Amino acid sequence: MTSPAGHVYLSRLLTDGAMARLHQLGRPLVIGEENPPTRAALEDGFAGACAAVVTLTERVDAELLACAGNGLQVVANVAVGYDNIDVAAASAAGVTVTNTPGVLDNATADHTFALVLAATRRVVDGDRFLRTRQPWIWGPRMFTGLDVSAGATLGILGFGRIGRAVARRAHAFDMTVLATSRHRTSGVDDGVRFVDTDTLLADSDVVCVLTPLTPQTRHLIDAAALARMKPTAYLVNTARGGVVDEAALVDALTAGHIAGAALDVFENEPHVNPALLDVPNLVLTPHIASAGAATRDAMGILAVDNVAAVLAGRPALTPVR
Ligand code: GLV
């Protein structure tokens, strides 16, 4: 197979390691900037490209794919989630779509667990309190939270690679681990008990949302799901904002239907629903769960390696199925 003509388009600057790998491709490059491209710049970048490396801030739809012309072979997403890409439209156009599974499991699980501990042990509340500069002294009732290591139950909604990595951390904290999976609804494997969603919501002290965003999982955590949780339970979302109905979460937190929550992802990123900012028992981070420096290098390098494979006529390393 002959190499396709055209440039490789990169929508946003990646980390140094990934940029170095991109330059090693030895292809003409069109490189975007630090910030996300405008739609017009994105369309310009796709026009005539043989490959595109994009991030989760770029919406790759049928119209954009059409801008590329016939030479586009691969769109490589620098993320494990790919709800920003119309995969059906890409397949119909004969374009391979790839993502970056595996390389971010530990970083994402670390951040998920950081949020579990931050929310349950009131790390951010304590930090905010000290910054008010008001006088304080140690007290037996001060900032008490959930003892995760005293037999608390952690529920993983969506047990994939990252869920498995979160389970390993939970086991190290002596937690009981429940999970939901598309592949099984009962039984125990490696200390993880598989249950249905309602059981997981009702029985967990901490619910971690790790399921991809699909039409089936949009607002999986709605008012009814939150009502099933214990009033002492916490919700942590490091998957995609759209899986949680933010308005329902604000209501549940305000009414004390659950004890607290932590969100790394938001329904309308980068917009953050202002009501979330006024809820005290909520920890927020700006979509940084995979932001270990080495992990971000590895994600970008895997995306570029996917491009290299496809342009050389080999199978993609991590195609989206
Ligand atoms: C980050 O959110 C990712 O999907 O990799």
Automatic annotation (TrEMBL):
PROSITE patterns: D_2_HYDROXYACID_DH_1, D_2_HYDROXYACID_DH_3. Residues 36-320 form the D-isomer specific 2-hydroxyacid dehydrogenase catalytic domain. It holds the Pfam family 2-Hacid_dh. Keywords: NAD, Oxidoreductase. Residues 113-289 form the D-isomer specific 2-hydroxyacid dehydrogenase NAD-binding domain. Belongs to the D-isomer specific 2-hydroxyacid dehydrogenase family. This is D-glycerate dehydrogenase. It comes from Mycolicibacterium litorale.
